[in-house]
Amino acid sequence: MSKDLDARIDALQISVDRLQSILAEADTSREVISAEGALTERQEQLESLQSQKRSLAGQVELSSISVDFAQKTRVDTVEPGGFTGGLRDGWNALVSTVNHVVELIGVLLPLGSHRRTDPAAGRAGPPPQALELNRGVAA
Known about the structure:
By secondary structure, the chain is mainly α. Helix content is 72%, strand content 3%. It has four helices and two strands.
């Protein structure tokens, strides 16, 4: 707004100066009256704009800016759940570990009990190669 106001003041000042030179060179009373009327109008506009500029400058001088600085609070220590919270967390960890061990046993158990059965006897026994090895050692 100030730049716009400054530009308008400069333009009006040039117009006033031009009208003053026209008034100084006027030959007839009609030219003098016409130049004086235009000059008076331009001077009023110029004074009004200069007054607005002074008013704005005064407002800027009286304006205030407030800045608030705040620091975020830092958490230095974390509050645990206390003694009972620690017991609860420990119990939950123990139960979770036992569950994982049981699941692992459940997965590994079928793999370890995979034995060959003797079709003739209909019962479980060692593989045929092991029987042949045992016979060879005894003989």
